[in-house]
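C-alpha cells please, single chain.
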Amino acid sequence: MTKGKVYIIGAGCGNIDLLTLKGKRIIEEADTIVYDRLIDPRVLALGKKDAELIYLGKGNTEGGLIQETINKTLAEKALEGKVVARVKGGDPFVFGRGGEEIEEIIKYDIPFEIIPGISSSIAVPEYAGIPVTHRGVSRSFHVFTGHTMENGQWHDFSVISKLKGTLVFLMGIKNLDLITGDLIKYGKNPKTPIAIIEKGTTPDQRVTTGTLENIVEIAKERKIVPPAITIIGDVVNLRDNFTWFENLNLNRKKILVTRDKHQAPHFTNKLLKMGAGVEELPLLEIIPEKVDFTTIDFSKYKAILFNSPNGVKTFMDNIEDLRVLGNIKIGVVGSKTEEVLKEYKLKGDFIPEKYMVSELAKMVPDFTNIGDEVLVVTSNISPCDCEGWEKLYNRKFTKLVTYSTNKVKRDKKEMEDILNKVEYITILSSSTGEALFEAIEGDLSLLDNKKVISIGPMTSETLNKLNIPVYLEAKVYDTDGIIEVISNDK
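Here you go.
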C-alpha cells in the first residue's frame, strides 16, 4: 500500500481565528486527525464528514507514555495510506514535541510537512495588550517552559535573572513560587512587573498582574489555574494603554446560538468578532422543498412577497428563468432578506418597518390593484393568513412553500450540558422557542439564571405562552438586533 503523509500542524493558541490558512486546508483534506486537549472544537469541525478523529490529549503533564502512543499512531495511520493531520496547540516546535513525532515517522520513510502555528508565547500576551518587545522598554524576549525537566533539573536562574528582555514562561503555574523566588534570589528586582494570563485568546481570558514579590499570593487569592502563561518585565505596564480584547463589546459573554446549522456560522462569526464565547446547538433544521416551477404561471401575479432569507434562497434555487419576474413587484421582510435578494441582482420594491409578514401584506395595496394576485413565498410553518388578507385587501394571496422548518430533537441531558456553559440563549423564531421547551422537556428550572433573548414580539409572545421568561427583546428584528441588545446588557 502507498504510504500516506503526516502534517504536523500548529493550530494556534485556542482561538480558531488564529489557525493558518494552510492548516485549515490540510485539516479539511485529512483522512485522520490526531488532536490535543486544547484544540477548539470548531477546528475539528473543519474535517471531512468521514474523517477519523483520534483524541490523544496530555492535559497539564509532560507527556510520558502518551507521547509514545501519539508517535506510533501517526506512523501507523500513515502506513495505512492515510493523510494524517497532527493538530497541536500553539506551534509544533515551541515546547510542542513536534520533533519527537517527526523522529518516529522518519523511521518508516513517511513523508511529512510542518505547518507553523501562532505560539501562545507571543499571541497570548498580545491579546492581553502586552507586547513582548517594545522600543525603549524591551529589545528581546526569552521563552521558557515552566516545567522541570524529566530528570528533575531546573533552569539556571543565575543566568536568566540577568537577561534584560521580557521573560515568558509557558505552563508554569504549579512552579510559580519557584520561578519568582529564584529570579529574586539571583538579583531580579522584586518590584518587576508580572502578568499571568489564563485561557488566553479565548472569551474566558483572565489577566492577573502584580510584581515578582507579590504575585504568588495574588495568584492564590484569584485561584489561577492552567492553561496560563506568565510574562515578566516592564512591558507588562504597557497593558494599561494597549488592552483591546477585553474591551470588545461581548467580551466574556457566553452565548448559545440555536439557528439551523447552515445559518449558525454567519451569526456565530459576528459574535466571535465581538469577543463572545459561542456554543452552537441547532434547534431547527431548514430543508428546501423541491418545487416544480414549470407548473406555476408567474404572469398572473402582480406581486411576490418574501418573508425570510431562506425563502429567497430556496426560491432562487428552484426557478429556472428570472425573466418571468420582470413586471412583478417584490416585497421583503427585513434587511437581511433584502440583502440576500440583492445577491441575485434583484431589488425589493417595498419593505415594512416592522419585520412581520402581516405588515408586508398590509403594504400590498400600495403596489397593486384590486383583484390582483399575490404570491407569498414562505415555509411550512410561517404565519400566513392568506384568507384573512384577501378579505382585508381585496387581493388574492397564494402561499408557496419553498422550504420546511423542522424541529431538531435534542436529548435533555445534552441540552442541560450546553446550557451550563452559557449565559445568553438566543431565540430567533417562535418555532425555536417551542423546540427549546421540548428539548428541556418543560423543565424550566434549567433556564434559571439564563438570559433568553427574543428576536421580536411574535417570538416573545410564544415564549411567554410557554412560561419562558424573556430577558431582552431585539428592537430590530434580526441577528444584528440580537447582538445590539446583548452588547448593551451590562
